[in-house]
Amino acid sequence: MLELTNVTKYYGKTLAADQVSFSIPDGATGVLLGPNGAGKSTIIKSIAGLLKYKGTIAIQGIDARQRQARAMFAYVPEIPAMYSALTVAEHMEFIRRAYRLSVTEEEIRALLTRFELWDKKDKLGDELSKGMMQKVSICCALLIHPRVILLDEPMVGLDPKAIKELKEVVMELRAQGVTVLISTHMLEMVQELWDFVFVMEQGKIIAGFDREQAYGQELEELFFKVTENWKAGEESRREEDRKASPDTGRKLFGAGRKSEE
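Given the sequence above, the corresponding structure tokens read:
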């Protein structure tokens, strides 16, 4: 289970995440949606342990900052980062040793073969395309058999076969009781995968719903309906604020003229 409670993050005086709370139970896939600047990256990096924040993030009921929680969590970043001097096989060996895994060579071979990387196992990190690096990142994450996995724009750069394979992996993880969180702009790619959706705007979760609440609506339709309704509500609130202070603009304008004089 992944659970966020009142997660708040400031960059200087800018509020990037405003008391964000949501949870995804075991064996479910959640999708985090929102436009650029909505706060998704801040939440993702906070979960991944890359940012300091206020509030609580728990993995299987354990504070995400603790080593025990980190050992159960896997993260596939949007922009894969690999060690240029290590081969694909050595990346897998690095993860095996770092997490003290008991996986066999046969398991590693099967995983790399599944993502068409076995014949690339001796290539160095800086010799791979972005799509290949993305697949290596996915394999490294799956190698640890996580209880919670975060996939940030995982399908960007992947070829059609790899996208199909990744979708199958997500469904397999869900069947195994793993909690999955996917952050993506590619709504059509997760249409058949999601159990829960969380929509962000201006650092806040403005809507959250599950499949039962969707009543068979397409994810894209739900997303635009939610964001358009929220924007309309924001415009209405701003208009009410202007009406409540009709002379604000005149006072400010007058002050400006006075200072110029």
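The longest helix spans residues 219-244. Try to locate this feature in the token string yourself.
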